[in-house]
Amino acid sequence: MLVEIHLNLLEFKNSISNYILETEENGWNKIRGFEGEYYYKEFNGYTILVSANFPLEKGYIFENLKINKLREILDQPGKVKYYLTLDISDNTLTTTKEDCFDPFPGIDIVNGMLKDFQFFRDECCVRIITQMDSIDDFPIALNRIINGFQLYYSIVNLQEQVAINYVKNYIK
């Protein structure tokens, strides 16, 4: 199941402008476009878009998400994004290939130390993955994903600083 968290309501409205609004069910708007059918609902300052196979009766899990950290994470210099796309399957929550990371040295060591989430490496990129006991755990799992973003950017920034310091010492 696909879940997108949109943090900019105007940008979201723009992104669905080519979709056809079909119906409303319990506050969820059903839209249809070339890629398929989706539902969306606006909450307090953000919009959730879900694939048509999402159980709408579980929509309460999206109320009052703590997204301030997510706003900061997605506002990276040179990589500003207004939404996060996630995949829910087999009791896991995973970032998608839209939010690929480059592998970093020591990723296996870092994964060996982590309990709440992992950096999952496939042939294309590195994604963040975490377990959920049920869909009701989405807010907790989202927090873990956000923590994964923070850790990744911290590691990359520290590695860049080490490289800069090393080169400065080398060229002296």
Q: Please, could you describe this protein's structure?
A:
The chain is an alpha+beta fold and 172 residues long. The chain has one domain (2-171). It has four helices and nine strands. A nine-stranded antiparallel beta sheet has the order 2-3-4-5-1-6-7-9-8. It is elongated, with a radius of gyration of 18 Å. The model has no long low-confidence stretch (mean pLDDT 92).
What's a concise summary of this model?
The protein is of the alpha+beta class and 172 residues long. It is 32% helix and 29% strand. It is elongated and about 65 Å long.
Rg result: 18 Å
Biggest beta-sheet profile: 9 strands, antiparallel
Q: What is the string of SSEs from the N terminus onward? A: EHEEEEHEEHEEH
Strands of the widest sheet, in order across it, are 2-3-4-5-1-6-7-9-8
Number of helices: 4
Mean pLDDT score: 92
Q: Structural class given helices, strands, pairing?
A: alpha+beta
Strand content: 25-35%
How many distinct folded domains? 1
Number of strands: 9
Distance between the termini: 54 Å
* Contiguous runs where pLDDT drops below 50 for at least 5 residues: none
Q: Which outline best applies?
A: elongated
Q: Bin the helical content.
A: 25-40%
